[in-house]
Amino acid sequence: MTAAHLDYEALADFAEGILDDATATSTEEHLAHCDDCRRRAADVAEVSRVLARAPMPPMPAHLVDRLDAALAAEAASHSPVHRHHRRFQFIAAAAAAVVLVGGGAAAVRTVMDDGDSSNVTGTQPPMADRTASTAPGILAAPHVPFTLVRTGTKYTSAALDSQVAGAMSKSTVGGNHAMSAASDILGACVARVSGGKPPLLVDAATYEGRTATVIALPGPDTAHADVWVVGERCSGSDSDVLVRRQVSR
Amino acid sequence: MRGGRSIEAAPDKELLRRHADGDPDAFSELVHRHRDRMWAVALRTLGDQEEAADALQEAFLSAYRAAGRFRGDAAVTTWLHRIVVNACLDRLRRRAIRPVVPMGDDATLDSVAPKNLDPTSAHELSLDVSQALQRIPFEQRAALVLVDMMGYAVDDAAKVLDVPPGTIKSRCARGRARLAPLLGHLRNQGGGPTVESAEEGGGKTA
Fold it and tell me: What is the pTM of this model?
């Protein structure tokens, strides 16, 4: 029997069952006739219930995009298929030549399929495609032909799909917005991100208020584009990806 | 498809092994499967969306790189949880040694200063769960996030945090003891069954 009141700590230990037997017994006896301590014990018990029913906001879409983009960039820059490094370099050299001739992504894909069919299948979702086709990025500054435009679009996460579609239709019509010479750094950035595919759109613009370049690449099919939004630090060695997303064309 | 099983049907361990073997789809399936739960852990541990997203990103990137070192005797979810909790701890440590706000810039300081500096119980009462959690030590918070908020068994939380189950129990108890006075005001919200003791409110210790 104890006359001293119990503090939250003693009550929480008691509730968790981690007091020694003697202390637990005296705690129990005290609680039997002390309203104040019973009330505090109820407070302690309530903590678990309050925590269990705390609302859990889902991960916001723009943060999901950022996470996906970071993982895609990781996949692009450190392909896990190190065992095939040399072979990829060789294939990449061949692929780059094909691109210059104008054969495009399909030819690249065919070469890679034939070269390593155990790791690269013909129908892969975007991240896989990135992993395989960007391995050539280890070559010294491959050049990808593209035209840098400034459509003046203020891209946002919410409207990205329609904004990219709008910018692409404008840039194929051509002539109604400024075209700029791309810096070597941007050229290397585009080469890194595109992995050799000629981009559909390279737009020097803003994304969510910050300076960004929107790069649209051919998607898995003709109805989609593979859109990368990269920040100012994008170069041949760092993608600085803000967002990556498949959008309808 | 290698392994004779589609990505969606493959168990976590197989996905991790396939990723380590170079399967380019396996890891994104793992992320897709566990992102929401890992987000919940990171957000509740750090109490801030941007910080939680950064920690989650670091965690998934280190899991991506470390997949080859995964020991098959643990569950993949346990391993992922541990990486996320450690990434959260790293961010807290960095925040502690290098304040985000540069000193001497009054305008910036004012803009991020707490709006309510009143140290009385009224302020305490206004704390919501997330703020209250930030008031207790990291070890206690991590244990409570896993056990009370995520609903994991003590033994599972012990594996995640790599301590004995008894340590989890005592950290949870200490954490609840510290939160009890901070969360007392919430106990009758949402139609809980304990209406009779409403007058005590803040729950001052004797």
Answer: 0.57
